[in-house]
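Support request from a user on the community tier.

User writes: "When I paste my structure tokens into the form, the page sometimes reloads and wipes my input. The last time it worked, I copied everything first. Here is what I submitted, just in case something in the input itself triggers the reload:"
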């Protein structure tokens, strides 16, 4: 047998630091060599490490969309309120003109009675 194979069989690390084939020296010391299903934990931690940043980005976009919808609603309500204020101001002006005309007629009637 070649020297690197014999070294791995006896549990001694070869040049790369591997004790058994594709496992790291740290896993070998803990007694956790990579079997068929052992990669799931590694994939899960990578998935978990990418899940939170992607969730944060998605929630950020969702928040911006909600703020946009609320902004449009506020704009439409402000425009409606502006129209109501303009209509009310026009009615107040008409009422003031009517009052002025009525006051002028009353004044002329009062002058005629003297």
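"...and here is what came back when it finally went through:"
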């Amino acid at each position: 047998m070649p020297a690197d194979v014999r070294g791995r069989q006896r549990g001694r690390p070869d040049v790369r630091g591997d004790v058994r084939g594709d496992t790291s020296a740290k896993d070998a010391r803990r007694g956790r060599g990579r079997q068929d299903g052992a990669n799931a934990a590694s994939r899960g931690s990578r998935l978990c490490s990418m899940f939170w940043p992607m969730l944060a980005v998605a929630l950020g976009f969702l928040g911006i969309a909600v703020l946009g919808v609320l902004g449009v609603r506020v704009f439409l309500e402000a425009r409606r309120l502006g129209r109501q204020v303009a209509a009310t101001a026009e009615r107040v002006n008409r009422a003031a003109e009517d009052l002025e005309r009525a006051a002028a007629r009353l004044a002329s009637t009062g002058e005629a009675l003297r």
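Agent notes: The reload is a front-end session timeout and is unrelated to the input. The CA atoms of residues 69 and 75 lie 10 Å apart. Residues 39-113 form the longest helix (75 residues). Escalated to web team.
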